[in-house]
Amino acid sequence: MIENYSLLLLICGGAFLIGALFPIVFKRTPISIPMLQVSFGLAIGHWWTTLSFLDPIDNGLIIEKLTELVILVSLVGAGIKIDTEFSWQLWRPTVRLLMIAMPIGIFSMAVLGYYTFGLSIGAAILLGAVLAPTDPVLASSIQVGPPNTKGEDISRFTLTSEAGLNDGLAFPFVYLAIKVAEAFSEGDRFTSDMLWSWFTHDVLWKIGAGLVVGIVVGKVMAKLVFSKYSQDTIISQGYVVIALTLVAYGLAEIVNSYGFIAVFVAAFAFRRSEHEHHYHQKLHDFAEQSENLLMSLVLVTFGMFLGQGLQSGFELTWRVYIASFAFLLLIRPISGLIALSGLNLPRTEKYTISALGIRGIGTIYYLSYALNQGFFGDEDALKLWVVCSIVILISIFIHGLSAKKLLKMTTN
């Protein structure tokens, strides 16, 4: 692709220009930035026939690291902008979505993948695991506003906190899929001892350690940044955001825990330490701009990949579309309503929270991460990329067109 370097720079400039002009040109329309950027990439991938094919399997490591970076920046931004304090009553909807809705989604999609697409057991579990978490990047438009804007409604807060935590909490199921695939690839069976090892290490230890690392890093960095010695000094918000992200993520990975959980919790703990300080606004603005720039690159590239697939004549079966719509319009909303049942929330808020389960860059990251481990066959890998890509594409347009109307229902 280096021979097309100048044209690629032009494409990147076009993607960034879309983001810059969006608030002016499309402010009064239901169109979202992700919709425009994916469409832009689709057109380029379809009509630019001399461009090298963007094979996601061959470029799995690049995809993994780029999407990982986008998610990390998004998680920091999500943690910093939450005004709601931590209390069981306020966080109950979030906990229910994580503990009830997400497992239901994983199980349902795994069954659908196994029987509809003929995936192996490990690949079917992986399909459910990578599609289960809502996306913190593409969901930024339906999340809470900047710090200290007050008046967070329950729908936006729940969607923000869910997206911030479920990316990390999906990891145990991704590891379960990898271990099942590894066992079967070596001709073994997935035994009860393997299941117990997975539960104690990948679930209990990694989640617990990630929470602890996040709390410690967030509170220590808040002490440093908001100490009396730094009050009269201008500290670059860029340094703080990047340091908070990398320190939390690096320490979490060193102690073999979940870095995504640690980063979001660190950002939230940092915010709660001096929750009314005006400096959080600067941190949020830097994180949001960085996230949007990186998101633009990923979405345009994703669209180019889809456009190349269409240009090459790749045919999608009806099963892919049915499974995609079933997951987005039935499985997620129903599992969300089940999770939120019994809570003292208006029916419109329950439906809005359940319906707005946006899928996106998190799915791409988890899928590339798992496939890079080398335990899934090429046939399963291709099916997984096809199904996940269509789910993401449909989600971008369905949720992009409906989000404003759904959220408006909760404020009326």
CATH class: Mainly Alpha
Rg from C-alpha positions? Answer: 21 Å
Largest sheet: none
Average pLDDT rating: 86
Quick overview of this protein structure:
The protein has 412 residues and is mostly helical.
Topology at a glance:
Blueprint: H1 5-25, H2 33-47, H3 60-81, H4 88-116, H5 121-131, H6 154-169, H7 171-185, H8 192-225, H9 237-254, H10 259-273, H11 279-311, H12 318-340, H13 347-355, H14 361-371, H15 378-411
Helix pairs in contact: 1-2, 1-11, 2-11, 3-6, 3-10, 3-11, 3-14, 4-5, 4-6, 4-12, 5-7, 5-14, 5-15, 6-10, 6-13, 7-8, 8-9, 8-10, 9-10, 9-11, 12-13, 12-15, 13-15, 14-15
Structural overview:
With 412 residues, the protein is mostly helical. It has one domain (60-411): Na+/H+ antiporter like fold, CATH 1.20.1530. The protein is 74% helix and 0% strand. The chain contains 15 helices and no strands. The longest helix has 34 residues, at 192-225. The radius of gyration is 21 Å and the shape is globular. The termini are far apart. The model has no long low-confidence stretch (mean pLDDT 86).
